[in-house]
Amino acid sequence: WGKSSTGTIHSCQPFMDSANQCHGSFGAAMASCTSHTDRIEMRSLHKTVLLVLVASVVLVLAVLHSWPTRAYSTVDVRQRPGTGVERLLAERLPEPDPSAGTIPYRVRESVAGLLAHNGCVCEGERAGVNLPFAQLLFPRVSAHPLHTAFQPSQLDEMKRRRAKEYQGFQMRSQTPADLLIVTEANSPLQYPTQGVEVRPLKTILIPGLALKDLPRDIYTLNFSASLGTFNMAAEVEGVKVRGDGEMHMTLSSCVLPNLNRQLQFITYTNTLFHPSTADTVQLETEGHQALFTIKIRHGVTPRLYNTGGDADKEYNISTLVTIATKTFLRYNKLQDLIDSIRRYYPTVTIVIADDSENPKMVSGPYIEHYVMPFGKGWFAGRNLAVSQVTTKYVLWVDDDFIFTANTKLEKLVEVLEKTTLDLVGGAVREATGYTATYRQTISIEAGEEEGDCLHMRRGFHHAIDGFPNCVVTDGVINFFLARTDKVQQVGFDPRLARVAHMGNENPVDWLTQDDEVFKEQYLPLLGWVQDSSFLLSECEGVLLQKFALSCQLPLRTHCTVGTPINSYLIHQQVFLQASIQ
Amino acid sequence: WGKSSTGTIHSCQPFMDSANQCHGSFGAAMASCTSHTDRIEMRSLHKTVLLVLVASVVLVLAVLHSWPTRAYSTVDVRQRPGTGVERLLAERLPEPDPSAGTIPYRVRESVAGLLAHNGCVCEGERAGVNLPFAQLLFPRVSAHPLHTAFQPSQLDEMKRRRAKEYQGFQMRSQTPADLLIVTEANSPLQYPTQGVEVRPLKTILIPGLALKDLPRDIYTLNFSASLGTFNMAAEVEGVKVRGDGEMHMTLSSCVLPNLNRQLQFITYTNTLFHPSTADTVQLETEGHQALFTIKIRHGVTPRLYNTGGDADKEYNISTLVTIATKTFLRYNKLQDLIDSIRRYYPTVTIVIADDSENPKMVSGPYIEHYVMPFGKGWFAGRNLAVSQVTTKYVLWVDDDFIFTANTKLEKLVEVLEKTTLDLVGGAVREATGYTATYRQTISIEAGEEEGDCLHMRRGFHHAIDGFPNCVVTDGVINFFLARTDKVQQVGFDPRLARVAHMGNENPVDWLTQDDEVFKEQYLPLLGWVQDSSFLLSECEGVLLQKFALSCQLPLRTHCTVGTPINSYLIHQQVFLQASIQ
């Protein structure tokens, strides 16, 4: 009899041949839908007796109800740094071969230079001669030192607070499913390294488990978890189990095929509730260990929208699209916009967020007018408008746009219906006749704890199969169609306020004013705020200093439909004014 | 000289002893911040000559700009079912040992019954005698057949549309990072099975790679990916490389320590842009294969809020909390609420969403009043209100609540400051003196393609360490404090409308009316809508039919602070009226 790795001696019983047939089927059992409280069946009784009985029963039940029907376990959800799992995994990373450390190597700079070095520096270039078209001809790299938003005396306090908030965020968002696990070579253990998932408090079969060991007297397998328990959906002869229904379970057998058969029926049950986490399972057999992760999370329930109409016919724009806009102090332009929309789309819903000083009434069929406190700003307005959209897609327009016969929303809808993109930008033609699209690529370079560097450049990532004139990029012009659920999920941060147009439509004047305007009005934020609207052409083509503005870029990026004319940052309708509240 | 697995013959050169020292450091290189366009440095010139030059330069640059500066690759983002990766993984799942299939087993019903069987059935119980306190004493299981929202003639069309939308959703949301991978036992390959991540279009070192093979004449390792390329950050003598910089790379060497040393410098560069996906890397050596995943995604940028005040002193409620509410046709109650808040929190911001028919002005310091189109509903109103919050936490109240000296927001803030929970519900005391909290557990049972079953029961999951009277649950009463970023991320679906209070405050009458009211006013939805407000005590304690309402439960759940009196569904202020748009 062999000694197992747990230190006890398992006697090895001969395999019992029996006529054990598999009975029942796994799918037959139905989950019980009864509630925990016992039910009492009523029979007919005399009324007064009934009332007396009812009164006493109420009393009794009241007492019973206050007693817990089962023992509840306690969880510790306090914010605490570090857990046993990270330590465990760190200990288990394989040591590099000590002899290998002496073997010399020659650095390949072209590749090594691409690796993140966590020390980005963003510096702009000095301004050259201030000529007309200067920015056009000689695009300079500008950088914005965001820490200058704070008085030097405040700076340390702000950094301290930010570090504390960031730490809390990390504790809430870290999951064992992201930790590094390296598999052991030449291990007899076969197990799933990815793809095992269980709904909170539910049970699953663990797939892919097997032991492919050399011949031994006895085979032992230990299971260990911390957020759930192990068990067996079926029992196999010749396999001894200890700890079934617990967080630590041991299987042992003398007959390897039987142990492997048993391994096909191992279950995991999540017992500590959490809507989105992972349990790290430790497997152990003689001389070998393995770790793998079981994800514990709710299923994703999709937001599905009724698209109306027949799939084979043309798109039903009124059912599919809501037009959203924000207006401020220019009702005449807004009315022009509405009139132009109605010429082509008489029944499409238009949602208007209005933060004007003395709001006028804006009404009409399929018009929804929302009045905000005065001057709340563009970001708050956009967040409000999209929060009210009930169609599959939302089309963003500015209140000074005009629809023309060329404004074919069906084309934009087709892109999103036929691809996996979340958002598609259009093209905006100025009164001058100049038509602009707008493509920005955004990349984030890791910095140290002061923050990261955000790089924005004109350009795009890829062209798109099947859609000529359409490219994948990160930033588009503020005329776009997007999936409503995605935009609502990312949103626009109402903490950011926007400085209105300068009122000067001359592109040349805009260009020369550009740098001055930025320095005056761009009050940087020390990492407090992310501009999730970044994606949607808020940010200018500048390099931002390490201190702060990183952007949330969760949307599958978008393409611009229309003539791919490069935009020269002429349409700077947005100056970012960020402020600390 | 050995023949490698690729079929070619690699000559085996003797290891060249050299004094190759490691030079340079990986961290030294700094990312270039220059833009793609060449810059021309201006020197002083005569003005007219300058203008002529400028004109010609403009012309030349215009021509140059229209030539792409680099070749762009094309991506296929069209919705297409199935990819090569799934097929690859399916083929690679290990075959169960054929002999094992003959070994009999005995089903353990208690465990097998817990496994999902994808065939849930939700049926209610017949109503008993309709007595006072009937629901109190004898809680029945109710079920709601949601498909009855549609005329039978419409039903098939609705199901077809829903299936199409769901399919699109699946295509957009599936990722290779969720597919099942089972590691091969007794493989000489050592590799990372979890935790390898790269930012889009960036480069990383792949950790944990090694080959622990038996002695051979020649060792070969093949790398294969589909969304990026492999390379080496450093070169080691005695290792031959083919395909560096490409999606398929081969390393070979006669000296195993040198190959393993080289494996410490293997890099992966993502070349096909996608903001959130994964690449499945295939590793291959003589007779063995392995698969692992590299996640490709943007880093998560946290939304951090300025908490104001000193960490050691008391919480600064005005900086931390915004009170949000929705009002409809009862300005007197709203004013009572505001007055009561001001007695204890004179400077906390109050956000009011108002969809009354003839809106009155509501004003005052720190009051933000938003006017909506008449009757948009509670969900739209709540989504609007939270979309405007700029503080770390948002406190939801109903417009007929009153603050008292016992309404200590600091207690609620403390729970969220000290734990990883996202939301904490309070207790609401009725005019009768009855104080209710509200705890609902929600569990989803997988159904077939018709939909899942949603089970709601009174109760909770766990008690909480350090917070007596506080439990972890899924649904709370509609008086709660929550993290603003989380609530904004989940939101409230404006497609759901709410029927107002019956106006009858007598608990007994509510109870007897309950079932009737539900049947009349609960118009189910065929899977079009998810009630993300579920979490926030919208849904009643009912069992819902398979067809439809599944809930989004992404928030880390919450605890109720206050006296743990079980609520008997008396506070049914919400009747869910769902309608198809």
TrEMBL record, chains A, B:
GO annotation, cellular component aspect: Golgi membrane
Keywords of this entry: Disulfide bond, Glycosyltransferase, Golgi apparatus, Membrane, Signal-anchor, Transferase, Transmembrane, Transmembrane helix
Cellular location(s): Golgi apparatus membrane
Residues in Glycosyltransferase 2-like domain copies: 323-487
GO molecular function, one term: acetylgalactosaminyltransferase activity
Any Pfam family the entry gives: Glycos_transf_2
Superkingdom field: Eukaryota
GO BP terms: ganglioside biosynthetic process
Membrane-topology annotation of the record: Single-pass type II membrane protein
Transmembrane intervals: 49-67
Family: Belongs to the glycosyltransferase 2 family.
Name of this chain's protein: Glycosyltransferase 2-like domain-containing protein
